Amino acid sequence: MTSTPPAPRLRATTRPLEQAPDLLALADPSAPLIWTRGDRGCVGIGEVLRLTFTGPRRFSDAAEAWRRIAAAATVDDPVGMPGSGLVALGSFAFADGSAAESVLIVPRVLVARHRGRAWITEVVETSGSGEVGAADEAAERAVLPGDVRVPTLAAETARSAVPAAAEPGEWQGAALRDRELDGGGDSVAAYLAGVREAGERIERGAFEKIVIARQLDGRLPGGSDLRVPLTRLAEHYLDCWTFAVDGLIGASPETLIRSTNGAVSARVLAGTRGRHPEDATRDARARDELLTSAKEQHEHAFAVQSVVTALSPHVRELRTSDEPFPLRLPNVWHLATDLGAALGERSSSIELVGALHPTAAVAGTPTAAAVAAIAELEPFDRGRYSGAVGWIDADGDGEWVIALRCAQLGEPDAETGARSIVASAGGGIVAGSDPTHELGETVSKFRPITEAFAA
């Protein structure tokens, strides 16, 4: 079931900015729309279009809907950079049968930066004649959440205009705890039982690898400024993309796909050890154990091969790192492999995401068998966790990461404004995996979110 109305006619106008703004400061405190890493990224303000998708065709339906929208759009973009012109930010659910919607959101205003350059894009919906409709004229005069006013780019002076940043809000934080299972029960015990059952099925030959996840949850007080956890993530996880799309907030280290001007790249992460930054000797030992572990190398090889197999029909000149390398993050060491290729047929970045998802890094090998078993062994719907989050432009180029180190916020309570928050983390189970060790790995992977949302 898919919500794909007739393609609206959008007009996107991009103009350069004289200075690169603080993107996080511009985000809506209660509903941020952000994609940032170091000196690159964008922030969306308001919405001019939202598309929702569900079911097994969510990626192909989204790709087709976006192709029609982009073809009907008028784009005035003298900047010509990745992320300029017409852009949508999106997030996709992990499972075909998930109750969570997958979304593409076109912000009313997008402020972006790429290293030393910055720009602002305004998007309005027009009639067939190109005139701005009455609803959009009203929206241009509207005050958006956070008292951020939409700029009008018609005037030459708008080249240096940036919406005013919302004032800093309050923050009380949320304590995340093991989520109570439906009908009660110990979620840690359920996770350990799931890992043991997965190991037994591997021994019986049902699959070679499976990723089993668990969840934490909590309540975030009403009025909390979500720029606080986003800033914490962006400042501590410099090698990750910090994101917020439709209540999904996180910092992912794993680039699922980046497609720009015919060049395609990806980063595969599989194999983990917790960091010990307080003890350099112990930390180095954890890194070396990861590099020399046959189990971790085996798991990593599965993940790389799944990406190579899925990507090969769509690209040319596919190449990978000679050997996995250790990626150091504040909370963990990962085994990492970078891939690069030239785009073959003209596939959009969403179509490439659909071809890759789910990778062995978040599902298992063989994929179909692992995904079916996940539905049995995990006592919850993953929602958008381990799905995809990122952006796409009018040419189909874009950048998408696997939604890891993240949490999903619920809708605010009508009376109190409080919101539910659910965080997820998992690890790859292969022959010989130890349930206690795997539990410890999830603790390390939860750290970015538990620390970001702490009081």
From TrEMBL:
<dbReference type="InterPro" id="IPR015890">
    <property type="entry name" value="Chorismate_C"/>
</dbReference>
<dbReference type="GO" id="GO:0008909">
    <property type="term" value="F:isochorismate synthase activity"/>
</dbReference>
<comment type="similarity">
    <text>Belongs to the isochorismate synthase family.</text>
</comment>
<keyword id="KW-0413">Isomerase</keyword>
<protein>
    <recommendedName>
        <fullName>isochorismate synthase</fullName>
        <ecNumber>5.4.4.2</ecNumber>
    </recommendedName>
</protein>
<dbReference type="InterPro" id="IPR019999">
    <property type="entry name" value="Anth_synth_I-like"/>
</dbReference>
<feature type="domain" description="Chorismate-utilising enzyme C-terminal">
    <location>
        <begin position="189"/>
        <end position="445"/>
    </location>
</feature>
<dbReference type="Pfam" id="PF00425">
    <property type="entry name" value="Chorismate_bind"/>
</dbReference>
<dbReference type="InterPro" id="IPR005801">
    <property type="entry name" value="ADC_synthase"/>
</dbReference>
<dbReference type="InterPro" id="IPR004561">
    <property type="entry name" value="IsoChor_synthase"/>
</dbReference>
